């Protein structure tokens, strides 16, 4: 297994340093926060939650504000600086890590929730990514959430066109259908509990695409909530 987090021909870490140094602050959390809150019926006090590839920090900071014991892992030092600044601004504490997400420093069954949003799709080989997340989530009531771009959406066409032109900021990314997420459950000995669709759009495209986002089979992004089989 290589020592760097991303294949250099796919999504090198410098792409992410550049991305997080330029993108403005994101105004609201993604649906993964409401999904986690709903699972615990709104009470996150004392729950150990880890975000893999935490990026802007908007989700893990929101979870910390709800009382979670928040942990964030991101290889990009620029991202970690942004997360630390946002946490300070919002008055919450977050433990930050810069380890390779395929070889984290955590013990087995460490977290009540392990989740990633917009991360898994940047790996050509997803196996070590998911096996590691499975290892560190609790076996009893723990939940593993994988939130990725969904295949059957106009976003996929635009993304691949920009990759061909060399203008896609991450460099490389794939996508997943609901059926792919079902296969992940079987391959990695997980139980698929539910899926959800969502997307973020500008004012012009939002009217059409928000309709597609209501169905996981046509949404821009799809999240899958798993439990770890014994």
Report the principal-axis shape: globular
Number of helices: 8
Query: What is the helical fraction, as a range of percent?
Result: 25-40%
Radius of gyration over alpha carbons?
Answer: 17 Å
The major beta sheet can be summarized as: 7 strands, mixed
Here the CATH topology equals Rossmann fold
How are the SSEs placed, and which strands pair?
Elements: H1 13-22, H2 31-39, E1 48-52, H3 58-65, E2 69-73, H4 77-90, E3 94-97, E4 113-117, H5 127-136, E5 143-149, H6 154-165, H7 178-187, E6 190-198, H8 206-212, E7 221-228
Parallel strand pairs: 1-2, 1-4, 2-3, 4-5
Antiparallel strand pairs: 5-7, 6-7
Helix pairs in contact: 1-4
Architecture overview:
Helix 3 (58-65) links the parallel strand 1 (48-52) and strand 2 (69-73). The protein has one domain: Vaccinia Virus protein VP39 (Rossmann fold, 3-Layer(aba) Sandwich), CATH 3.40.50. Helices cover 35% and strands 19% of the residues. The protein has a seven-stranded mixed beta sheet with strand order 3-2-1-4-5-7-6, sandwiched between helices. The protein is globular. The chain has 230 residues and is an alpha/beta fold. Helix 1 (13-22) packs parallel to helix 4. The chain has eight helices and seven strands. The protein has helices at residues 13-22, 31-39, 58-65, 77-90, 127-136, 154-165, 178-187, 206-212, and strands at 48-52, 69-73, 94-97, 113-117, 143-149, 190-198, 221-228.
């Amino acid at each position: 297994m290589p020592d760097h987090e991303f294949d250099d021909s796919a999504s090198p870490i410098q792409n992410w340093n550049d991305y997080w140094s330029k993108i403005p602050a994101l105004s609201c959390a993604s649906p993964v926060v409401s999904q986690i809150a709903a699972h615990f019926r709104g009470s996150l006090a004392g729950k150990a939650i880890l975000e893999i590839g935490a990026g802007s920090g908007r989700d893990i900071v929101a979870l910390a504000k709800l009382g979670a014991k928040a942990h964030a892992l991101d290889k990009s030092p620029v991202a970690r600086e942004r997360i630390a600044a946002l946490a300070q601004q919002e008055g919450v504490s977050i433990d930050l890590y810069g380890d390779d997400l395929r070889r984290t420093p955590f013990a087995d069954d460490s977290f009540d929730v392990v989740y990633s949003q917009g991360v898994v799709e940047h790996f050509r080989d997803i196996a070590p990514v998911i096996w590691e997340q499975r290892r560190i989530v609790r076996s009893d009531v723990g939940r593993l959430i994988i939130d990725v771009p969904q295949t059957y959406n106009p976003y996929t066409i635009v993304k691949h066109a920009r990759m061909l032109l060399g203008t896609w900021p991450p460099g490389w990314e794939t996508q997943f259908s609901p059926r792919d997420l079902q296969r992940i459950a079987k391959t990695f000995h997980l139980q698929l509990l539910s899926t959800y669709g969502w997307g973020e759009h500008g004012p012009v495209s939002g009217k059409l695409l928000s309709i597609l986002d209501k169905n996981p089979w046509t949404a821009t992004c799809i999240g899958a909530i798993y439990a770890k089989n014994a």
